[in-house]
Design goal:
Helices cover about 40% and strands about 10% of the residues. By secondary structure, it is of the alpha/beta class. The chain folds into 2 domains: about 230 residues, 3-Layer(aba) Sandwich (Aspartate Aminotransferase, domain 2); about 140 residues, Aspartate Aminotransferase, domain 1 (Alpha-Beta Complex). The chain starts with 13 loop residues before the first helix and ends in a 6-residue tail after the last helix.
């Protein structure tokens, strides 16, 4: 379908294509001078904190856990509404994810429920900033200080987001970002970790490249168990160009988000669906980067499953996604004795959430088309209200 609207699409200008071509022609395509330049530029972006880049945003969280010394017997408090990588990496280092239910408004981990989940084995709080919306950073770090815990911020979706005027990554403990193709800033695949000091940065370097401590004329040495998670100069060249375009991307995303609120409210009212409890995101234009625009369908008021809504939107040329089902509902986690009933808000949100298209290259009229399509489906399947 030629006029199909995907739920996301990256933007690459000619300068980006030229930058990649330059790297390819240079003959140095793996980790090298462009990566060093990208890391230095990111460090400036984050207030001169140390930054190291990795092959993907999963590696960044895993290495953050390793830098924090998390392993067998440790517990990490996190959210059940995230891409499953967040908790998979906790398992991969031998630790135990402890899922705390979410706030139904922000859809992020409910910080007020964290104290009751803390045990003598708790070492880390790992919040996820869903769709780019951060948690209450003041409360988060007050909890960490009170209970003597490390914080690893899964800010995979929050590049460019803020908390009370402070850019996410400029403050806090360990902060992980993803540069995957659907993110606000992409290197196609990749990620970065903002660290606290040079010692942590050097340890992160070792973890990303087989634990290598030195190499050269005098031989080499390895003193920790590392992996192969380095970012290439090709990816770094893309990232450098994306950073230049980020302000315009952010402005456009905010414009589109505002249109969504205005058009959806108007469409629901025009269709006589004022009583329909379609849950929209928090209207936070100060802190979030509008990575995604998600609605929660009022399935209890509809005679339709989410999957059918998605199918009918696709038939209208509108691509949507699900971000995310509750992690505790996956077979791997059910086999580890996790239950969705332990986090009922996450279970409800996870089976009802729908991600609508949002990316800088969208046209204003795309928002109207999406809203009309969604509201038409909701009207079609609305249950008859009995007096």
């Amino acid at each position: 379908m030629s006029n199909f609207i995907p739920f996301t699409r990256p933007s690459f200008n000619q300068e980006t294509i030229d930058a990649v071509s330059e790297v390819l022609r240079s003959g140095w395509v793996t980790s090298g001078p462009k990566l060093a330049e990208f890391e230095a530029t990111l460090s400036q972006y984050f207030g001169n904190r140390p930054v190291r880049c990795f092959a993907n945003g999963t590696a960044t969280i895993k290495i953050a856990l390793q830098v924090a010394g998390i392993g067998v017997g440790d517990e990490v408090i996190t959210t059940p509404i995230s891409w499953v990588a967040t908790s998979n990496v906790i398992l991969s280092v031998g630790a135990k994810p402890v899922f705390v239910d979410i706030d139904p408004i922000t859809r992020n981990i409910d910080l007020n429920k964290i104290p009751s989940a803390i045990t003598s084995k708790t070492r880390v709080i790992l919040p996820v900033y869903l769709a780019g919306l951060p948690v209450d950073m003041d409360l988060l770090y007050a909890l960490a200080k009170k209970y003597h815990l490390r914080v690893i911020e899964d800010a995979a979706q929050a590049f460019g987001s803020q908390w009370n005027g402070n850019r996410i990554g400029r403050i806090g403990d360990l902060v992980s970002f993803s540069f995957q193709a659907n993110k606000n800033l992409t290197t196609v695949e990749g990620g970065c970790l903002v660290l606290n000091n040079a010692k942590e940065a050097r340890l992160a370097e070792k973890f990303r490249l087989q634990g290598l401590t030195r190499q050269g004329m005098d031989g080499m040495d390895v003193d920790v168990l590392g992996g192969k998670d380095n970012l290439t100069d090709v990816n770094a060249a893309i990232g450098l160009e994306q950073l230049k375009q980020l302000p315009s991307y952010q402005t456009r995303r905010a414009q589109l988000a505002r249109l969504y609120f205005d058009v959806l409210h108007a469409a629901l009212k025009m269709a006589g669906l004022d009583s329909l409890k379609l849950e929209l995101p928090v209207e936070d234009f100060a802190n979030t980067n509008w990575h995604m625009f998600q609605v929660v369908l009022p399935l209890e008021q509809l005679n339709v499953a989410r999957s059918q809504v998605m199918t009918e939107l696709k038939d209208l040329g509108i691509g949507v996604g699900v971000h995310y089902p509750a992690i505790t509902g996956f077979t791997l986690y059910k086999n580890l004795d996790y239950k969705t009933s332990d986090t009922p808000i996450a279970e409800r949100i996870g089976r009802s959430i729908l991600t609508l298209p949002l990316f800088p290259a969208m046209a204003d009229e795309d928002i109207g088309r999406i809203a009309k399509g969604l509201v038409g489906i909701l009207q079609k399947y609305r249950k008859i209200e009995r007096s």
